[in-house]
């Protein structure tokens, strides 16, 4: 598990170390943007803990209360993370920034802020590189955006977005802090906080959309469904695949429901044997499909069949 979630652990360590230093620097220098960055890092730290909790919960085996397992716990906690980014990260940063725009304060010894920003950039950049490397292993030749849309593991792209937003936020804060200090325009520090907040809100909307889609129940891709149809209809006892229904229970578990038309001459024993054979064939071909439910459907006779 530690190897599979390397990006989460690296992001957790980086954000935990950086959050404290940002708050200390912000308190010493009266910098709202640095306080906003501290809030950002604190929220990210909490998010990584929630993701790890969700991963642990999703690994629980099925029981009488959850016969299909607890896999969707990960999707639920991922959605909570996106809400936290919006509320605790974005809204608080915007609010903090607006306050400092309306009541600007001169920066006191901004050298502390520059030192913390440099250190933060190193740690956040290293964490982002790990996240990119780990997510890149799952892309399978797809473009980055398409890989994110198609991904069924939110723990991967959540950390990628968080680290990316963190690095962009640091660059925004650095540029506006330099301008604020050199041009003697302290309101720019508050503007930096607002921009960081807006960035987090935009990221939260993207992550909420993806997490909601997974939580509501995404199914197998049309390409995979077509391959399944060909596989099943190649069986001599199957006439036609009437319907394919599927949903991801977790990133590595799919529930599949097939409605099939079988040969009319099959008796109950033959039908049971055919269903068992098809179930084994599907699971052997697609390890991700854990649950297979096959519903036989009666053959619909056409009017020509009654013609003498």
Task: Tell me briefly what this model is.
This protein has 308 residues and is mainly alpha-helical. The protein has two domains: 6-216, Alpha-lytic protease prodomain-like, CATH 1.20.1510.10; 222-306, Alpha-Beta Plaits (2-Layer Sandwich), CATH 3.30.70.1350. Helices cover 66% and strands 10% of the residues.
* CATH top level class name of the largest domain: Mainly Alpha
CATH A-level architecture of the largest domain: Up-down Bundle
- The total count of helices amounts to 9
CATH topology of the largest domain: Alpha-lytic protease prodomain-like
Q: How many domain units?
A: 2
Shape: elongated
Order of SSEs: HHHHHHHHEEHE
Number of strands: 3
Task: Sketch the major β-sheet.
Answer: 3 strands, mixed
CATH superfamily of the largest domain: Cation efflux protein transmembrane domain
Strand order in space, largest sheet: 1-2-3
Q: Runs with pLDDT <50, length 5+?
A: 301-308
Strand portion:
5-15%
Helical content, roughly? 55-70%
Distance from first to last alpha carbon = 66 Å
Structural category: mainly alpha
Mean pLDDT figure: 84
């Amino acid at each position: 598990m530690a190897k599979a979630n390397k990006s989460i652990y690296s992001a957790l360590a980086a954000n935990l170390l950086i959050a404290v230093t940002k708050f200390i620097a912000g308190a010493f220098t009266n910098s709202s943007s640095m306080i906003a960055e501290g809030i950002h890092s604190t929220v990210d730290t909490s998010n990584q803990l929630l993701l790890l909790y969700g991963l642990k919960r999703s690994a629980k085996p099925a029981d009488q209360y959850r016969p299909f397992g607890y896999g969707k716990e990960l999707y639920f906690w991922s959605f909570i993370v996106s809400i936290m980014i919006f509320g605790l990260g974005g809204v608080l940063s915007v609010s903090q920034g607006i306050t400092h725009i309306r009541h600007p304060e001169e920066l006191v010894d901004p050298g502390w802020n520059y030192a913390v920003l440099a250190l933060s950039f190193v740690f956040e950049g290293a964490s982002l590189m790990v996240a990119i490397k780990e997510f890149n292993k799952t892309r399978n030749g797809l473009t980055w955006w398409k890989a994110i849309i198609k991904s069924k593991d939110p723990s991967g792209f959540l950390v990628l977005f968080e680290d990316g937003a963190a690095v962009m936020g640091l660059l925004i804060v650095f540029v506006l802090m330099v301008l604020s200090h050199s041009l003697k325009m302290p309101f720019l520090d508050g503007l930096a906080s607002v921009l960081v907040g807006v960035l987090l809100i935009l990221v939260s909307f993207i992550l909420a959309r993806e997490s909601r889609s997974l939580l509501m129940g995404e199914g197998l891709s049309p390409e995979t469904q077509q391959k399944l149809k060909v596989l099943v209809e190649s069986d001599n006892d199957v006439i036609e695949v009437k319907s394919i229904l599927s949903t991801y229970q977790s990133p590595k578990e799919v529930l599949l429901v097939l409605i099939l038309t079988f040969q009319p001459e099959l008796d109950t024993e033959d039908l049971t044997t055919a269903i068992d054979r098809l179930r084994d064939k599907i699971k052997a071909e697609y390890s991700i499909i854990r649950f297979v439910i096959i519903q036989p459907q009666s053959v619909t006779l056409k009017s020509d069949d009654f013609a003498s």
